[in-house]
Amino acid sequence: MPEFAWKARTMSGQNVSGVMTADSRRDVLALLSQRALSPLSVTQSKAPFMSLKLQRGVKPDVLAATLTQLADLLTNGVPLLQALDLLSRQVTHEHLKEVLQDIRTKVSDGRQLPEAMAAHRDVFSDLTLSIVRAGTEGAFLEASLQQTAEFLERQEELRAKIRGAMAYPMFLAGAGFTVTLVLIVFFVPKFSELFAQLEREGTLPAPTIALLWLSDFLGRFGLFVLLAAGGGLALLRRWAASERGRELLDRTKTRVPIFGPISLNSAVSRFCRILGTLLRNGVPMLKALQISSDSSGNVVLARAIRTSAENISAGEPLSTPLARCGLIPPGIMAMISIAEEANNLERVLGNVADGIDRKVARQLDTMVRLIEPALLMVMGGAVLFVIVALLLPVFEMSTSMS
Fold it and tell me: What is the pTM assigned to this prediction?
């Protein structure tokens, strides 16, 4: 959403100015008029590229802390407008401060909180908006804000665990790739003249020929290879963002050895936790399924959940259509089925999510334990290939001379 710098005059004749986030210049003029201000000028701000890069994003932990503070203020009886005003003055993140100020303005104009938040989809995800909307309609706004914050914190903790677990393997991979590339591009060409005679005689070993060809190719076309790889990656990301690409990618992720179960279990955990939270706060089953399907982060699982909602509306219990999709482990399905019969689904879903999270943590640890030796073997194999390819001609020359 663009920013507009405005100047206006108050009813007492005082000149004031500021910056406002809005959909268009017309919206800014309308908001200024509602504040009893006479607009003098409204121009769209053009911030430098780097400042946009550095300031626009709001980290999940910062957003979670802000939502927690808002929930605490509302729980303690502070009116919504006053709570938003307090938060906007306390927040140090510039973009989040502007977002809170704009939300306060929209709420003061009579809009509902979810509607005001929906104008800033670069900050609030569809899942966050859905939970807050359900909380507003169901009169549990404070709880919905707190639960959204807890969900964001759990997601950030999981990402931090993954980043921490993959830091050393990625360092090994980067170091191995760099060493191998330096050897091939800068070290191997020094031997090309030495091996030229053997190559003309046709006595150069096949590994050495392959290594010399690779070194020559990267020396000549390395920049083009790098540009092509960057372009290919950009196209791949664009394709992965499309509906068809994301579906295929999510379906493939669940089938990848080691990583597939982790990805699927994480998606199931998110679904169970959000569904249990919504049901515990009195949200109807069909609406809760619609909201929680978006929380899974997996298009294939989300479609299966929405299909389950259609079957539930036709009279089936939740466990029956979910079991047919084949994505949720049988043990979890058995717990959901028993909980349905005992009319205790919302509590059991929370316990299921906790159990899956513990399982994901163990699976991450196992994955790292397997990746580290695999990367060491790949790195060692690449460096060994370079060394052997360089030494083979030397051994053959010494053998022929003796």
Answer: 0.69
